[in-house]
Amino acid sequence: MILDKDTIIAPATAVSESGIAVIRISGYRALSFLKSFFRTKNPIENFQSHYLYLGRIVDEDDSDIDEVMVVYMDPPRTYTCEPVVEVHCHGSRQIVRRILQLAYANDIRLANPGEFTYRAYLNGRIDLVQAEAVSRLIQSTSEFSRRSALQQLDGLLSRQLHSYSATIKNLLVQTEAWIDFPEEDLPTENLDRLFSTAENLHVQMSDLMNTYRAGQFVHDGATVVLAGLPNAGKSSLMNALLQQDRSIVSSVPGTTRDLIEQSTQIGGINVRLVDTAGLRSSDEFVEQEGVRRARNVVKIANLVLLMLDGSAPLCDQFRALLADLSAVPVVLVVNKSDLLSEHHDLSFFPGPIVTVSAKLGDGIDVLTDTIASFLLNDYLPSSESPYITERRHYEALTGSVSSIKNFLNNLGSVDLDLLSIDLRSALDSLGRVTGSITTEDVLDDIFSSFCIGK
Length: 454
Ligand SMILES: Nc1nc2c(ncn2[C@@H]2O[C@H](COP(=O)(O)OP(=O)(O)OP(=O)(O)O)[C@@H](O)[C@H]2O)c(=O)[nH]1
Ligand SMILES: [Mg+2]
Hints:
binds magnesium ion; Rossmann fold; alpha/beta; 7-stranded mixed β-sheet; Gyrase A, domain 2; Four Helix Bundle (Hemerythrin (Met), subunit A); 15 helices
């Protein structure tokens, strides 16, 4: 995509039968389109920016297409920083089609996906991080993903990255100022200051980088698998977490055979919850297959809720199961608290343990809190601190952090001009995130995933 002078048009709302549809036009022909095809009482020359006007859109023969409301927005206070017109017409595909055709016949072309946002970026209204947030906001399906995208759009992450860049630039200026000094004349207190600033920056950037795991779950959701021996109460817990009768529950061990999946939200995160067959050896083919599937899905789980029937004695099969799962993130769920007579000693288990009664619903709140805090790694989305949800940001930040690390390692031992290379590379990596340094490929990649009209 390149920035051209074309005026572009696209439906901003989904094209389907609806109360109204909004069509957006951006570019220098936007106002002349109104002058030619919008009929209203007030002369268009007297339109106030950002006000809605009622009238009719007509075609070249002056016959009505629809009764509409239009708004003209004067640059630069517009989405794209260009003149923008929005036509709010009735939500009929035919009306939208006619208005688009009228525009095409008058030197206005259909926008590419994301082109409005692309113009906002190229015209400097938002940076690349904010442009990506627009797309994330539109795609958000959970409360946290909505909140985090909005926070990113507001510029919280961008401001943080810009402040890191400013600190690196400062380090660079100081380092380069000393390049002409003979090494023995370098004031050690200045070197110490340089070191502590860089070290502090390294800690802050690493902290931001470490929010990525939580950020991924916030954006992409997580797979949480219920596993355990037969009859532990996995299906009962599935139903309790979903608050619906999704899995068959019975006192016969081996009831669940296939994987039973359902999407839900736990603590504001989208979770794919998977109920599985009780893990035991069986001669029966269907059960064997169920157990095989259960073992496979456990391997790809972001979190396993390993269920233990708390009313039964701890058995060797359970201990073996726990050993099998040692490489997987596990929350141990001790079920049937309503029948619990003796207290099992589970101190050998290093992870979180939650006691519940899936049947009565006791302890489910504690369990959902435990799941959420495990997934978010205690990086609860807050309005004050940004976090990383994009792989692209994570990778660039990793590059920048490792260049700062090199700088710290090399400070005092190698030439100052080599040190400035580390700093420049740290700066470039950050620039790739915000878009101050970028390539066509990256831009195409980002904006082609947008919908048309955004
Ligand atoms: N008292 C009591 N009974 C429970 C509780 N949870 C489950 N049960 C009972 O335990 C039995 C097995 O429950 P399920 O939820 O089917 O167990 P499961 O782990 O899915 O079993 P499989 O699918 O056979 O592996 C049923 O009779 C449930 O009513 C609980 O918290 N308290
Ligand atoms: Mg079951």
